Amino acid sequence: MIELSAKLTTGTVYLAGEAIECCISFCYTAQPEHRNSQSHSDTLENLAWASAQFHCFYSTSGAQGDKTPILGKTTSLEVAACDVGDAVFHSKPKILFCDLTIPLGETKTFWYRESLPIEAPPSYRGTSVKYSYKITIATQKVGSHIKMVRIPFRVLPISPIINMQDLAALCGNETTEELHPTNPFSEERKVETPLTMALQVLQNLTARRSPNSYMITNTRGKVGRFCMFKSAYKLGEDIVGTFDFSVGTVTCMQVSVSLQPEEVLKTKSPPKNVNKETSSRSMTVARYHEVTLGLTQSQLILPIPLHITPAFEVDDVSLQWRLHFEFVTTNEKLVPNPEDKDWNAPLNVPIETMVWNLPVKIYSTLPKEIMHHTVGTDAYTLNIK
């Protein structure tokens, strides 16, 4: 029996444009019932071939099979029945070996390395559409069926941050400096790539502080003032803001803030039961709630989960993020007089609820930041008999 072992050596999370790397091993081990009855012919095993490639799968909540491949060429590795959706693009299959002989007890190791397209859609599990990625490793013994193992991995978007074509042009222009005499005593300058420059832009965008203040009002007057210190965040960061109710003329009893995605479909033929022009559905991924009666100041701290998908836009769907505010207000003066020792809270209070949506930009973070806080499987095995 041959055991196929595959492990992602660079983790399970990647930015679009990065290279994935997988270590693939084939080990010939004797089955326990055959260890004492080995013949000379059983000391060698043969595999006809093995290949590796990655797929991006697309599916909708209403129907499947309505997409055609947009990248990559025809591959001999068909989509398995267990895979949900259609493969919208894939890399070219890379042949790991042909006609491999493995002696008993030995292991043969191969490496698969492939770069993801910079324009690739991110891994995304939305309410209407889904994108997922898997590495497909296939092999076959002579006279046997093809065996395949799928290794899922996650892709984060990078292209919406800046025009990647402009970055590529900037990187290409830097080669002109090589025509000038170089100093043999100076350190070699690192060559910038579109991906590294995009990461620098990402860092600058999310590190920049730009406080914005908003006066919150309803039909009866001022509720308060909200201040947010910046509008661009990375996955894993905290959205921080402050409420100032001392400027309000209307009593705010409680406030809740929810981080919600806004998914908009742009396909000409959307799934059934989905609005054709715009399909924006909201769900809460993080929530802040506080009773603010009697408070003049309050602070908002809302962690951004690492598992969500940052903002992105492709041909079929776009994803943005917003803060959804709900203020419960009343015109009653419920704050007791400090001199009144016998004050009791009223049994019934007339209230009004007002809502407000504030767009917020959420970008990718470095994959290693996500892998440090998540538990996942990066190794898979397959027995070939």
UniProtKB/TrEMBL annotation:
Protein name stated in the entry: RAB6A-GEF complex partner protein 2
Cited Pfam families: Rgp1
Highest taxon of source: Eukaryota
